[in-house]
UniProtKB/TrEMBL annotation:
It comes from the Bacteria. One of its GO terms (molecular function) is ribosome binding. The lineage of its organism: Bacteria, Bacillati, Actinomycetota, Actinomycetes, Mycobacteriales. The PRC barrel domain binds ribosomal protein uS19. An accessory protein needed during the final step in the assembly of 30S ribosomal subunit, possibly for assembly of the head region. Essential for efficient processing of 16S rRNA. May be needed both before and after RbfA during the maturation of 16S rRNA. It has affinity for free ribosomal 30S subunits but not for 70S ribosomes. Residues 4-97 form the RimM N-terminal domain. This is Ribosome maturation factor RimM. One of its GO terms (biological process) is rRNA processing. SUPFAM superfamilies: PRC-barrel domain (SSF50346), Translation proteins (SSF50447).
Amino acid sequence: MDLVVGRVVKSHGVRGELVVDVRTDDPEDRFAVGATLRGYLPRRRGATDTGRGNPAERTFTVTAARPHGARLLLSLAEVADRASADDLRGWLFVIDAAAVDSGDDPDEFYDHELQGVEVVTTVGDRVGEVRDILHLPANDVLVVTRDAGDEVLVPFVTEVVPTVGREHIVIDPPEGLLEAPAGDAGGTGSR
């Protein structure tokens, strides 16, 4: 199982620097000069594919890293110019989950630890299971697959998700969150 530690947002400058959204609590270690990163471009939006066996997976060596607001500017030995950096837009940098400690804090979870966990409402009604976690600028979002096969997006904020555990997640959905959109017989159809 892989853990995503960063996502390439865009290139920066003409020397191949990358603007990276950091997805790790330990960026100084994960992006240290000399560190090796595995990276790949997800096959489709929202894909949970780990990239293993993905022919586009590559290995990179960090040559420099520096803060850039809430993000990181990253230089890699294998990326020497802007065109090469532009080609990596959207790529994910990953590490093997076995390489990290789960930690002792019962309120901290890695994405893969929540995937497959049952989601119920505060009154005990089953909603479904967590399929994925989206990391968006405003807040994280749980992608919950319901028993009927459709999906619902649940804002991963304390007001909506008051209880998180490895056995179940309790949500207090605002009115309308769990209802199918008008004209949709089963959830998140395309519009």
